[in-house]
Amino acid sequence: MQQDRHHTDMVAARRIVVLTGAGISAESGIRTFRASDGLWEDHKVEDVATPEGFAANPVAVHQFYNDRRRLLLNASIRPNPAHTALARLEHSVIDLPGHDFLLITQNIDNLHERAGSRALVHMHGELLKMRCEQSGLSFDIREDLMLDTCCRCCREPGNLRPDVVWFGEIPLSMAKITKALTQCDLFIAIGTSGNVYPAAGFFELAREHGAHTVELNLESTNADFDEHICGPASTVVPDYVERLLSSAN
Ligand code: BJW
């Protein structure tokens, strides 16, 4: 594990924002996007993660998300110690006077909630939800979504899409996220490459408003974080959370 620059002044951390990306779920068996064996090795981003790609070939896009949904529902896919540690952090600080906690995930899996996280926003949507393009209403889904799946609100086929955020679309809960970023004193980014905006700019917004910024990743992605902790999430996240909590006692 490598650490550099300033260490977190943990006792001062009262308002904590955590951003997670695909790297936190990698050790649970879910592929990241941009690794050499990642999802974008097998699929073109513009084909499966844009509204234009969906309009051109909805069957292929449904297939891409159906495969990922089936994997997520497989019994072998479980939260790892990094997910569990973040849930422990939330439950340890959320009721303390003057403290606040928000977990922002770019991931569409449900491993954070399965680990016990509750103060959570899915800014890029959820794999276990589908949305009606006519009404905008969102529904739970655990089975495959097909072109002829009948919508529960308009009772017609062809109106449903995965309830996820594709390139060119506006991420979810941005008002809540922006408020938390401008008020936090500790910002922690875990397992995200910093390639996709607006998430890639969150640490700068938090830092401009006075937060200490920490990156936990296999490798450093941006030298401008105040602190870097390099290593696999299932090891470095529980260690970091333990240090944070023990310094607060
Ligand atoms: C480990 C590990 C281990 C591995 N332990 N670590 C030009 C300039 C700037 C911006 C733009 C631009 N042109 C267009 C834009 C905007 C565009 C964008 O960012 N494009 C870039 C390509 C430049 N963004 C958008 O369009 C977004 N919307 C938007 O900007 O709206 C405007 C607006 C914003 C705000 C307010 C109002 C208006 C929407 C982006 C949607 C992204 N959607 C996807 C698909 C979601 C559904 C799905 O899952 O299929 O989201 S793309 C994909 O990338 C997915 C991810 O959430 C996202 C980020 O990926 P992530 O999580 O970082 O994964 P990887 O694979 O990249 O990285 C993994 C990391 O983990 C690596 O660093 C590893 O080292 C690490 N790691 N194993 C620890 N064991």
From TrEMBL:
CDD domains: SIRT5_Af1_CobB. It holds the Pfam family SIR2. SUPFAM superfamilies: DHS-like NAD/FAD-binding domain. Keywords: NAD, Transferase. Residues 1-247 form the Deacetylase sirtuin-type domain. GO terms for molecular function: histone deacetylase activity, NAD-dependent; NAD+ binding; protein-malonyllysine demalonylase activity; protein-succinyllysine desuccinylase activity. This is Deacetylase sirtuin-type domain-containing protein.
